[in-house]
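Design a sequence for this backbone.
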């Protein structure tokens, strides 16, 4: 049976070559693009904890926003696990796919071929939701988040309401949409209210409000 190490080696002539066509660099199951209009696209091969198969984790990192743990990651080390926006590659609407390493090298290559085809058809479509900066994010309203409608679902396996609001308010602040930055941050603080969940983000929302307010005063 093919193991993970051998499977990753077999990615070189098919999957990795397709990624390179679309600006990805990397090897061994970890790939990323260079920053382009503030977006870094990432692809990670994620092994099943029980062995025998893997899935493909896609991520979108915004180069001026820290990762979910609050760290600013060097651009050449960003992985899907640093991204707020993530999605497991699939050709199904509500289910991710896992590819077997195969019993033989031929079977492994067949599975990698299907993985590559799925990436071209569906993975690139997902990354296509993150092209027009900042409009692809600033076009999202608080109402969209509350309803979890298609404007939000296109972002992938969506983060919590408050984390999404934090990202969007930071984007508004970055592009000097100060009123909108304040509005989103205020909405999120009110939504958190007295709940413990999300309360750790309140200082970050207050920081956004203070920065946006200060810029407004100078204008």
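Sequence:
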């Amino acid at each position: 049976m093919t193991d993970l190490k051998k499977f990753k080696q077999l990615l070189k002539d098919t999957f990795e070559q397709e990624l390179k066509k679309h600006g990805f660099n990397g090897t061994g199951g970890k790939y990323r693009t260079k920053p382009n209009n503030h977006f870094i696209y990432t692809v990670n091969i994620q092994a099943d904890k029980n062995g025998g198969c893997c899935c493909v984790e896609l991520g979108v990192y915004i180069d001026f926003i820290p990762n979910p743990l609050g760290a600013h990651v060097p651009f050449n080390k960003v992985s899907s696990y640093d991204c707020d926006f993530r999605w497991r590659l699939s050709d199904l609407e509500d289910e991710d796919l896992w590819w077997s390493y195969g019993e033989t090298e031929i079977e492994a290559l067949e599975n990698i071929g299907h993985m590559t085809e799925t990436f071209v058809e569906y993975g690139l479509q997902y990354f296509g939701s993150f092209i027009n900066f900042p409009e692809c994010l600033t076009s999202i309203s608080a109402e969209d988040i509350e309803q979890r409608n298609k404007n939000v679902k296109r972002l992938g396996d969506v983060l919590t309401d408050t984390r999404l609001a934090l990202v969007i308010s930071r984007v508004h602040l970055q592009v000097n949409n100060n009123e909108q930055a304040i509005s989103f941050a205020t909405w999120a603080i009110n939504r958190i209210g007295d709940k413990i969940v999300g309360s750790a983000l309140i200082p970050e929302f207050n920081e956004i409000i203070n920065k946006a307010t200060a810029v407004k005063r100078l204008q």
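The two ends are 66 Å apart (CA to CA).
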